[in-house]
Amino acid sequence: MSERIVDRPGLNTPAEDAAWNALRERVTISLRPIGAPTSIGFFGLAAASLVLSALQLSWVEPGESREVALELIGFVFLAQLLAAIFSYLGRDGIAGTGTATLALIWLVVGLTLYTAQPGATSALPLGRRGKGKVAVQGSLLEQVQQIATRPGVRQQL
Q: In whole angstroms, what is the distance from residue 51 CA to residue 116 CA?
């Protein structure tokens, strides 16, 4: 190959050409011929959305939350994790990061559902009292009435 490549640095000497040719003989670029694994990730996301929505809309009995948790852990988490692994192997960092994040989120949701009492509405203590309850559940008028009218004066909830 004696044509000059414009982007290549150097002076285009015979020694340089021989070095480039020797380098071309040693370097091999091989890519794994895999398809886009995002379809597996989207399939897991659809399954998780369907199963969790069925539990929240009472299509599934609230007492069966452990079965829903096992489906989230056993199928959805594994599908998302598999999609993340193959995304990284296919050099798609954005899809790999997204599906790995979703895999871990579904694992945490599944473990939370599995360890909670069947039919429990939340595993977190969300009991609010007093002004905190008004701030979260009260009307706008109730919230505005609590605001101090003098500048710089505020009350802690």
A: 17
Half-sphere exposure of 16 (CA within 13 A, CB side): 10
* Residue range 41-54: mean pLDDT, rounded: 93
What's the whole-model pTM score? 0.60
Mean pLDDT of 16-26: 82
Report d(CA 22, CA 18) in Å as an integer.
6
- Environment class of residue 59 by beta-carbon count within 10 Å: exposed (0-12), middle (13-18) or buried (19+)? exposed
The average confidence (pLDDT) of the chain is 81
Please report, for residues 3, 18, 21, 47, 142, the alpha-carbon distance to residue 27 in angstroms, rounded to integers and kept in the order given.
20, 14, 10, 44, 72
pLDDT for the residue numbered 40: 92
